[in-house]
Amino acid sequence: MSAWRSLFNRHQPLLSCLRPVGPHVTHRTAVLGSHSSLISSRGYDSNNSNGDSKAEVNRQLPAAKRHLYVVLDDSKDGFGIHKLDVDDDNLGGGTQHLPEPPLLRVAFPTVDHRAQFAVVGSSIVAVGSCDNMHISEKDDPAGGVLIYDTKTVAQVFSPQLPKGFLRDWCVYQAAIAVGNRLYMFESIGSEYHKHIDDDWWDSGLHCLTADRGGEDDEFWCWQPLCPLPMHEEEQLSPSCSWWWSDNDCLLELPFRADRITAYGVYTAPGAAPHEHEIFVSVSSPPRNQRSATFSFRPPMHPATWIRHGDWYMPIIGHAHYDGKLDKWLGLHLAYGYKYNRWPDGYLCAGKVTSDPSEWKVGKQKLCCLDEDTAAGWIHVDAKLVPMATADQAGTEYCLMERLKPEGGDCLGDGDKCLMRLTTFRVKSGENGEPVAMASRPGRSYKVSRYSRFFEARVFWM
User: Fold this and answer.
1) Contact, 353 vs 370, CB < 8 A?
2) Which tens digits make up the pLDDT trace of 104-137?
3) d(CA 406, CA 4)
4) Is-contact 82 150, C-beta < 8 A?
5) Considering only CA atoms, which of 211, 212, 207, 241 is closest in space to residue 224?
6) At 57, which helix (H) or strand (E)?
7) CA nearest 112: which of 83, 140, 141, 150?
8) How far apart are CA 292 and CA 283, in angstroms?
9) How distant, in Å, are the alpha carbons of 3, 145, 258 from that of 117?
10) Per residue in 65-106, pLDDT tens?
């Protein structure tokens, strides 16, 4: 109780207005159905002088409201996807419980306890593999992918996974979404050991998409999530709207995926969906212990990965390009924690191809707070997600942090852990450092936690 009491009594510059999201979160039951387009519809402005009633109605429709989607391991039976309205201020201050039931409960054994969650378009993607401890060499490994469309509430499930995912304890090391494509890096493709420059490693790049049919189809060698109908009169399964890449050449990465520390993607304004550049920083590329940053432009062959230097982006996890700042922004990697992948609580901004010494670290500590440690809380994980909207002057972000009480076993029911959500905008300081400006009241929730290894996810859609 002392930890909770200290949490309410202390003062924090940016986190001083902790207030919970209200309970009016709609629960919708996911249904099975055909998969619709992942690109949101927009009103069409007709130039016809006589007018178009449908176009006029579309012009008057407000933009679809976005929400935070938080994925937690808060049930012994699976994962919960919670939909939160960051503008709902109906309740007063204090730490609250998340509304029940969640938007969607992903129950075992649909995916296993090591499933990972990512987002592409309007869909949340859960990928899970089998428990390697309980299969023999003669067994075929099992797993599956669950795709939940937040707009149509349709679900698609398929047991089709790249072979490397089925044998990888972590499934994949990083996931990067670009348009309707989700790129995933796996680290233990047991059937694809590569030997390059006298070094052995087995990492791979895979892509999941609902948007094939472009000029790069031959490069990716798309395979559907389900077998295509043998006869035209057979009904097409919704799973056939999604495709995995099936190109063994994509496994020839110039780095080990399990050493990825930071990653991001840059898409120039007005560029085509396939015209983007993926950046990856690793702590230990092959043959040496030096760090490195690489980039790759699909659909170029992976042999054309460009090495920018023997250094890594000084952030942890996803790096977000901020067009207003013209810099990449992320959580600063704690000094001395290159292999533990731990943030130190500060923001960090810089050019992706610049040496870490040229990046600027903010002066405000937004997570891993000393006050929390003094109050008996221990940092569990943190995620930074951009909340960009067309009507905002600058880019807005949400920082999600989970904390657990010091000492004792916090796993299981009882809402013994704390989840804190902080939203802010970022501007450049006098010396180019990122400065966070509170944009909405902070919120905190009591949550349960069942896995020591699962990292909570937060998405803005």
Assistant:
1) no
2) 999 888 888 888 899 998 999 998 875 543 444 4
3) 12
4) no
5) 241
6) helix 53-60
7) 141
8) 7
9) 30, 10, 17
10) 889 999 999 999 999 999 999 887 654 467 899 988 999 999
